[in-house]
Design a protein that fits this description.
about 280 residues; Rossmann fold; Alpha-Beta Plaits; 11 helices; elongated; binds iron/sulfur cluster
Amino acid sequence: MILSVASGKGGTGKTLVSTSLALALRERSEVQLLDCDVEEPNAHILLRPTITEKQPVLIPVPSVDESKCTHCGKCAEVCAYNALAVLQHRVLVFAELCHGCGACSYLCPEDAIAEEGREVGVVELGEAAGMEFVGGRLNVGEALAPPVIRKVKEHIKPDKTVIVDVSPGTSCPVVEAVREADFCLLVTEPTPFGLNDLALAADMIKELGIPRGVVLNRAGQGDSETEAYCRQEGIPILLRIPLDREIARLYSRGTSLVEGMPEWRVAFLGLMDDVEQLAKRVAKR
Ligand code: SF4
Ligand code: SF4
């Protein structure tokens, strides 16, 4: 089972949910927690993993052999990201713009382009509270999150229960992280912004053909619009976490809900039971 935990909007408590779920589940199955929120990873704050290995994430960028180059301009023409400029006697490579697609080296008629690795991030492997931890981190100033996310996901062990913490929003990194999930939990809060971004994320997950459910965080006031939306879209609300001073205090101190308030363990185990049943029901169709 691969379960993605996403949210349309940042700051809804997505990581509180993913880490609490992982901590609750480790008692009954082998769990892997993947932090794919590589632009702002914070699962490590709540889980405090021991990191045993770091792997750099490299993307291939072109290196031009000027002695072979005829400055024909084909490489710059084919580059969709404007990462190359061909001058009269020189080819300029803007490595930060390069997406490592390889089109320029493939199409160069003179075989003048080699590829060299450029580090854009790192994958950290380790152990946290009896479970496997894999976290991605994009280097400061880099914009290309998907290659780091793909590297994190290479470590997925399908025989384990895999919880994937996804970036907020609906952009490419989210699609990359959510792809191949058996189920996606959308964490939201009952505010107009929360509802707006939930609707965007829910549509995206539907397009990807992944079954969805909602976790309503800071519930208690103004829930009715979110509830009405979920009813109308046929999205079940699987867990409600109340707006509570003690929960907020724990979170601000970097303590997960299950660790700080162990009575929540049962609720998270129940959440996973519901997720498994819903995922099975969809798979049978
Ligand atoms: S396609 Fe090859 S030969 Fe043409 S400008 Fe680019 S590097 Fe030079
Ligand atoms: S590898 Fe792709 S993105 Fe990078 S410079 Fe070549 S064509 Fe452009």
